[in-house]
Amino acid sequence: MPHKTKTHILATIGPSSASREVIERLIDSGADAFRFNFSHGTHEEHKERYEIVRKLAKEKGLHITLIADMQGPKLRVGEFKDGEVMLKEGQKFLLDMDKDPGDEKRVPLPHPEIFKAVKPKDLLLLNDGNIRLRVEKHDDSHIWTKVEVGGPLSSHKGVNLPNITLPISAITEKDKNDLKFALKLGFDWISLSFVQKADDVRYARELIGDKAWIISKLEKPSAIAELDEIIKLSDGIMVARGDLGVECPIQQVPVLQKKIVAACRKLGRPVIIATQMLESMINNPGPTRAEASDVATAVYDGADTVMLSAESAAGKYPVEAVRMMRDIITEVEADPLFYKLMDSQRLHPCCVGESDSITFAASDIAGVLKNVAAIITYTSSGLTTFLTARERPNLPILAITPNIEVARRLGIVWGAKSFVNKQTFASFDKIEETAVKIAVENGFAKSGDHIIITAGFPLGKKGRTNMLHTVYIP
User: Fold this and answer.
1) Which of 241, 307, 301, 322 is CA-nearest to residue 272?
2) Residue 243: pLDDT band by 50, 70, 90 thresholds?
3) 408 in active site
C-alpha cells in the first residue's frame, strides 16, 4: 500500500499520460484514481487506457478507481465566415438559427432551447465568460443583444447562461452511447456534466442502475438551489470550478466550494474539488504559491479527493504534478491544525440511525482509546465506509468487502483503503483474525496496537451498520 494520505488524488488521462510507462509512474507517485474525459478521444483509445490501468492495478495489488466523465450538453456558437470576429463594446450582435456562417453582426446558435429560455436583460457569456452579451429582445429563432464586454470570438466557442435553467437533459445522445460503452467496459463511476436539477440525477440512475456509482458535477448555479437533494440522489459530487466560475461571479466560487464540501460531509458523500488546481504546471515544472495554497485549502476544507485536469492529461509535467499534489496533501495532513479543523467541523448525525450512531461512536472511541492504528469497516455496499469517512478520524479506514466493484469504487472516499475478502465467516473470531491480519500485513498496525471494527451483522446484509468492536493486537 504505497499511498497513505487520507485525501485522494484523481488524475485525468490524456495524450500526455496515455502510455503504460507514464500511467505506472502516476500510480507510483500518488494517483489513486483516473478520470477518462469523454469530451475527447475515441472509444478505442479509452479502452486501451482502461485496460492498461486495470492490468497495472492487478500487478500492484491495488484497487484503482476509474471514472468515465460524460461530455454533457455543450452549448456553442456556429461558424464564422472568416473563422473569427472582433466584437466591440456597445455594438449590437444577433444570435439566430440561420445556418449561414456568421460575421461581425451575427452568428448562428444551433440550440433552439436557448431561444425558448432567455428573457430580456438576461446575460449570455461566450468564450469562457470573456465576452458578455446582454439580451434586449428575442423570439423563437433570434436573440438580439448588446455587447457589454467585447473581444475576439471564433467559431464554436462555448456559451454559458448563468442563472438560466435550460429545458434539456444532462445526458445527450452522445452521452448515452458513451455511457453504454463505459458500463460495458466496467468503469466504477459515471460523472454527469451540466447537472441543473435533481431530476437529472434521477434520469441518470434509471439508465445506469447499480452498474456504476454516480458523480454529479456542480457547474451551474441552478444546481445549488437543489443542493441537498442532488447530493442525496448522487453517490458523489464534483465541484467543477471551471464552468461554475463562469456561470456565477468568480468571487462566489470559494464560498460555494466550502458550502458544497460541508453539505457532502454532512450527508456522507465523497466530494471532489476540480479545475485549475495546479494549472501553471501544464507548462512549468512547479506550481505558483497561490496554486499550492489552493490545493491545501481544499484539503483543509475536508475534500475527499483533489483532481488534476489538463495538468496530467495534456501538460508537460504530469508525473511532477501528481507528486506535487501528494506532497502538499502530506504536508497539510501532518499539520496538527488539520485534525483540529476536521473535528471542529463534525456534525452530530442528522439521521440518528444505527449506522450513523455506530460510525460516529467509532470515531469518538478512536480519540479516547490509546494506540488505535486503524478503523476496519466490513462493507458489502460501501455505506459503512462512507459514514466512517464522514467523521474524518485521524486514522486509516481499511474497507474489507467481498465485492471487487465496491473496493474499486472506494478509491475516492476520504481515508479509505480497500481490500477484497470473499470468505464466509463462521465465527466472530474469524472476523477479528482477518481484520488484524490485513491491518498488520499491510503496514497499518503492529503488536501493541488496537483496531476498531465496524460492520453490519450478519455480514453481507446491505445498508445496515450495527456493530462496533475493539481488538487488541498482542
Assistant:
1) 307
2) confident
3) no
